[in-house]
Amino acid sequence: MEHDFYYYTKEELLSSPKIPLIVMKDNQSVFKAMAQEMTEEIKRKNALGENTLLICPVGPVGQYPYFVEAVNQQNISLKNVWFINMDEYLTEDKRWIPQEHRLSFRGFMNRAVYGKLKPELVMPKEQRIFPDPENLACVQETIQRLGGVDICFGGIGINGHVAFNEAQDDLSEKEFLELRTRVLKISSETRAVNSIGDLNGALDDMPYDCVTIGFNEIFQARKIRLGCFRDWHRSVVRHAAYGERSPHFPVSLLQAHKDVNIRLTEFVAELPE
């Protein structure tokens, strides 16, 4: 069965999407916009004397060099900022893969973000949170203690997953929206796509398990901002914006969120002739 929306032209795509779409020139424009929204929210909350809580991905990651540069140049204090990262790969015995592993999201954040920020600006280590297979309640407890997530940033996977919330056809929309931080198997589709992007196609070396924040944590964020820029995002964005709400394509459930948008490139908006 063909899905007409996969073949929408740019004009059709932008005519009446169920999730607001913002078309930007190129990848760097998307990344810069994400970084700017991160820094502006932190500055706004700092000025109010309030804490900032952001959910952050490792994929996309192009926003982080711009974020680091802005924080360091503008001397933006992160002392009252909490980052909750979305997910992490696990070993066969369901523990975090070592930070030294080339796929470790924790290792990436330490090298590319925390390690590049001025020491006097960066937040304490206890405010750099990853979902932990040995303490699954930590994410939800942090969110509740700090009064909610200000903005959730992220991308969209090949089967519509946000974080590692893979498609689950056996769940209702309500059940899927109740999913919290948990350990789960990574789908074969996601393993294949991630192996292409991160391991030059070395599928056999991709982990099978992960720990992820749930769709509950994502949906409860006051704002949700997603970035799409890859070639296969052309179909992903069209499905997100025009498909029916369903756990079969999890990002479609965000059609019901009060403040969400997808930033996409001209490349994604256009279809090749």
UniProtKB/TrEMBL annotation:
Coiled coil: none annotated. Keywords: Isomerase. PROSITE patterns: GLC_GALNAC_ISOMERASE. SUPFAM superfamilies: NagB/RpiA/CoA transferase-like. One of its GO terms (molecular function) is isomerase activity. This is Glucosamine-6-phosphate isomerase. PANTHER family: GLUCOSAMINE-6-PHOSPHATE DEAMINASE-LIKE PROTEIN BT_0258-RELATED (PTHR42892), GLUCOSAMINE-6-PHOSPHATE ISOMERASE (PTHR42892:SF1). Gene3D superfamilies: 3.40.50.1360. GO terms for biological process: N-acetylglucosamine metabolic process.
